[in-house]
Write a structure and sequence with these properties.
This protein is mainly α. It has a domain of 50 residues. 72% of the residues lie in helices and 0% in strands. The longest helix has 19 residues. The radius of gyration is 19 Å and the shape is globular. The C terminus is likely disordered.
Length: 307
């Protein structure tokens, strides 16, 4: 098996270590156009994940490869406000949440909408409609990056069905992991398990496969929650802590009702990335379970909205 020279770049991205991914990409010396392209793909996706969509928009030309065009479109779709909106919606169904803290989540959502311009909302809506049309009409570009980013846009727009249709155009490990995520969003754990088994047949030890295994274990619940916890722990022992891994591990603890332990992990995630929406929302939820006033976490979102 040939060595993947871009392993460090890709792996940092998969683990949510976006700055490390950017650093690795910037020092990577590409030997050919294909390596140069994939280096750019993960570097620019990391910038977008950091809320710096302006960088790929300013550096990527309109007249370029399918992958670069997909990156430009994804950058146009993404913005910090959209990330908060997406993750807040996930937690509005939390049972038995106090009225005060539920109202806090609603305030964050309203703040998100307040600071979003009409142009931003229209731009996202236009991009989502464009992607949906390409998928339903069978016109989505046959390009790995275009497929992954199209599925991401559709999932974040609340359209997992079309996201899944897009992903079936690809057989890569990353698209397979995205299929698992999408099926879990659709509450099709049975199909997610089947998709995971196919990933394990390809590469059981791959980072993406192990992450997908953790997601499935958390959906299965019960004893599998401990397995998910240890998967995240093994990854942190091997690659170091990242906000994404800390949030994942905290989610496994929350589902086991180990709220105080989960709170410590989320506080560490916040120290590493104060703008991480998953850790912020999880902290609000945990505060409610612990009977704490979650009002203080409302302050975390304010620096992200300078307008």
């Amino acid at each position: 098996m040939s060595v993947d020279r871009l392993f460090d770049v890709k792996n940092a991205f998969y683990l949510g270590n976006y700055q490390q991914c950017i650093n690795e990409a910037q020092k990577f010396s590409a030997k050919n156009d294909e390596e140069r392209l994939w280096r750019d793909v993960y570097m620019y996706r990391s910038y977008i994940a950091q809320g710096k969509a302006s960088i790929p928009l300013s550096e990527i030309s309109d007249k370029t490869s399918l992958a670069h065009k997909a990156l430009r479109r994804f950058a146009n779709f993404q913005n910090p406000q959209q990330r908060y909106f997406f993750f807040i919606k996930r937690y509005q169904y939390v049972p038995a949440m106090s009225t005060k803290n539920f109202n806090l989540l609603t305030r964050i959502l309203k703040l998100t909408i307040k600071f979003e311009t009409f142009e931003e909302k229209y731009s996202r809506h236009r991009v989502a409609q464009e992607v949906q049309a390409e998928v339903t009409e069978g016109k989505l570009a046959n390009d790995e990056t275009a497929i992954i980013l199209a599925a991401t846009i559709l999932n974040q727009s609340g359209n997992p069905e079309d996201a899944l249709r897009a992903l079936f155009k690809s057989t890569s490990l990353e698209s397979s992991a995205a299929k698992v995520q999408t099926l879990l969003k659709m509450d099709r754990v049975d199909l997610a398990v089947k998709a995971l088994k196919k990933m394990m047949e390809v590469d059981e030890d791959a980072t993406l496969t192990q992450l997908a295994l953790a997601w499935v274990n958390m959906s299965l619940g019960k004893d599998k929650l401990k397995d998910a916890f240890y998967i995240y722990q093994e990854m942190m022992d091997k690659y170091g802590q990242t906000p994404m891994l800390l949030v994942g591990q905290s989610s496994a603890l929350i589902l086991q009702e180990k709220y105080e332990e989960a709170e410590k992990l989320l506080q560490e995630a916040q120290l590493r990335d104060a703008n991480n929406p998953e850790s912020l929302i999880n902290l609000v939820v945990i505060s409610d379970y612990l009977g704490k006033d979650a009002e203080v976490f409302f302050l975390y979102i304010l620096p992200s909205h300078p307008r």
